[in-house]
Amino acid sequence: MLLGGLRYLLPVIETAHRLGIYVITVDYIPDNIAHKYSDEYHNVSIIDKEAVLTLAQDLGIDGIMSFAVDPGVTTAAYVAEKMNLPFQGSYDAVKILQNKDLFRKFLAENGFNVPNARGYNSIADALADTDYFNWPVIVKPVDSAGSKGVSKVDNPENLEKAIETALKESHNGRFIIEDFLEKEGHSSDTDSFSIDGQLVFCSFSDQRFDSKAENPYTPAAYSWPSTMPQWAQTELRSEIQRLITLLNLKTGIYNIETRLCTNGKTYIMEVSPRGGGNRLAEMLDIAADAGLIENTVRAAVGMELKEMTDPHYNGNMAEIILHAEDSGLFENLEISPEVTPFVTQIDLWVKQNDSVEKFTGANNTIGTIVVKFPSNKILGNMMQNISSWCRINLK
Fold first, then answer.
1. How far from 188 is each of 40, 312, 324, 341, 375, CA to CA, in Å?
2. If we measure between CA atoms, which residue out of 300, 311, 381 comes closest to residue 88?
3. Is there a contact between 330 and 356 (Cβ–Cβ < 8 Å)?
4. Which domains occur in the chain, in start order?
5. DSSP readout, 22-42?
6. By the 8 A CB rule, do 296 and 65 touch?
7. What pLDDT digit, counting tens, does each position of 277-336 carry?
8. Which candidate, 255, 368, 257, places its Cα nearest to that of 318?
9. In sequence order, which residues have a C-beta less than 8 Å from that of residue 377 and are 6 or more positions away?
10. Full-prediction pTM beyond 0.90?
11. Which helix (H) or strand (E) holds 198?
């Protein structure tokens, strides 16, 4: 059973079918694209864990996953635990990972590097607590993904507006405020995999943003291999393994966000027991022959896994997240001729005259491009100004 219906599920469905697995998709949006490719669809909200459990029991499923669909992860963990199905961790462990407030608290209590952070239900309580933070701060819903509802706030006078923005994207009416950590170089957002509690595949990326976007904290591109210093990658790998051990996590995929900051410290920002959005697992399969999607499917139904090791990249690759700077009607995608030879894949999700929205979150993505450059230096130069060679033109 796959929770959700986004296009990021399509390679998962394709892989499951190749392995002879019957696929059931579930959410409350019948028109989502994944339902056209699954074997069976049920209209049930993926955040209603009891309803999903009842459906899963009635159908007698062998595995459940919320791949690249953040709202369904705790539900999947709950159903897996109730039905004794494979999953990365217990329901209690997954609740910690999926709630930014609980996760920050867990990290602090266990000696990880962690930003100054507190969670709130009340705007008034947060406004009365401004002296606790080292400004500027970041305000986020505790339970949303795709950078929806995230704001950087430079001073207390602007805090209330940022909280209201976060609450609009929150499922449970709770938000978190934390010190803004200035990164050194690029942050990393990519997927990793553990088997029987051992981190066997650990990757790092260069995550990039569009400073001109409506929401400048929504990822706009990724590249591999990472330019993060090797000592920082080694330290973070060790800390991720320590986290896996502490939470008694077992086998499966994780979307992991990390960064090295200007204070010289490394930080684990987020760990979610699911494949990441923006085709990250698919990209790692392309960039490093990782086998992530196949092993993720195999793990979900208890099949034997294929051997995995840390990635060896097939060159210098990047994924561009296509998006519009403004709302309007899509005209075309324009790629400069000098870059065209380096484009290995274009996946455009809109056609001419389709309505597109400005980039307020990952849900406004309109496609992806995969590029491969001869060297990391050339890749870095091309990534500094993507809009100079890759443009979305609107009518």
1. 36, 17, 23, 27, 20
2. 300
3. yes
4. 2-85 (3.40.50.20), 116-179 (3.30.1490.20), 188-394 (3.30.470.20)
5. --EEEES-TT-GGGGTSSEEE
6. yes
7. 999 999 999 999 999 999 999 999 999 999 999 999 999 999 999 999 999 999 999 999
8. 368
9. none
10. yes
11. strand 198-201
